[in-house]
Amino acid sequence: MAMRPRLGITGRIVAVVAVAATLAALLMWWATAQGLSPLYALPVSIGAPLLLALFVSNDIAEPLKEATRAAKAMARGDYSVRVAASTSDEVGQLAEAFNSMAQDLAEVDQLHRDIVANVSHELRTPVAALRARLENMADGVEEPSRENLDAAVRQSEHLTELLQYLLDLSRLDAGVAGLDVREVGVADLLDSAIDVARLAALQNGRGVNFSTHIDPVDLRIHGDPARLMQVLVNVLDNATRHTPDGSTVHVDAGRQRGQARIDISDAGPGIAIEDRERVFGRFQRATPASAPATGGTGIGLAIARWAVAIHGGTIGVVDSDVGATFRILLPIAGPAAGHSRRGAPVRS
Asked: Do 123 and 245 belong together in one domain?
């Protein structure tokens, strides 16, 4: 819908008053010139401008009435109602802001539904498998062999991981988390994170290689080792899930304007430009719609961005020739002294 030229509410009111006053004066002059009695001329000269003002005021107020109806619908849980924005003045801007809010609330409502569905789905499979295996061993159907016990341990570890994700999600919502800041070597962090990611890939039946390049090799930063490990493991795990089996995930680290730069690249289908921010949303997956599902909780990247943010850094998807490249930038000196970026206490 094309919007009418912008004229503020104040300007429209002034214009209405000016036109109404001019119309009243002209009608009064015309009635006097025609020799009409003031008893008839006065109501006409007042009534016509009032009708004009009423028409214009209804035009101004209609979007507000629509917003009121939409707000009542939203209170009943219907987020599909939108307000027509036919002007670009303050009322039109209000309508656009209202529609944007309605869209955000609709997405949040859908997110809450997805949380229940995703968490239920993610927890049901390992719980059922663990219970079945333990019941079989308790009933004597299976021997409590090392292999069966290892399988039960892996299921319990999966449950622990999911519960940790939920705990981190609640911390993400709260926006705070304590940091135990110390000096750590980037090489050591990457080696440990790659070991975890390689083991997870093997457990998922995927053979993925890793290539690491660090310049300088003794690059060190200040941060919380546990949180930084969480960032690297989540991004590496995402890369292993989307890179072809047998391919290589490349990790390149170095300095960039007083920050530590860590690029993690896979050989997968890549991420479209319009999806590069969406993949950091909770319960979002970086898999294109045409690609097969690759598992995962869908909140690993959201947690990674949160953990990077409380260190005062950034994470995002950058252009790459093949696959997707996630770039992590962390201040070498660590979070701002005394507080993290989102107000969390920092211990050093």
From this structure: no
CA distance 106 to 196: 37
CA distance 75 to 55: 30
Count of domains in the chain?
A: 3
89 three-state secondary structure: coil
Q: Are residues 241 and 292 in the same domain?
A: yes
Provide the residue range defining the domain that includes 53.
Answer: 9-103
Q: What is the chain's pLDDT, residue by residue, as a tens digit (348 residues)?
A: 444 445 556 666 667 777 777 777 777 777 777 776 666 666 766 766 677 777 767 766 777 777 888 888 888 888 888 877 666 667 777 888 888 888 888 877 776 676 666 566 656 666 777 788 788 888 888 888 888 788 778 778 767 766 766 666 666 555 555 677 899 999 999 998 998 888 878 877 778 899 999 999 999 999 988 889 889 988 998 898 888 888 999 999 999 988 999 999 999 888 888 888 878 876 555 444 334 344 444 577 887 888 888 888 999 999 888 889 999 999 999 887 434 444 444 444
> In a 10 Å sphere around its CB, with 0-12 CB exposed, 13-18 middle and 19+ buried, how is residue 238 labelled?
buried
- CA dihedral 45→51→54→60, nearest 10 degrees, is -100
- Scanning the chain, the segments in alpha helix (DSSP H) are 9-33, 38-75, 90-139, 146-174, 186-203, 225-242, 300-309
Burial class (CB in 10 A: 0-12, 13-18, 19+), 46: middle
Residue 259: enclosing H or E segment and its boundaries?
Answer: strand 259-265
Residue 141 lies in a domain: yes
Same domain, 125 and 270: no
β-strand partners of 262: 253, 328
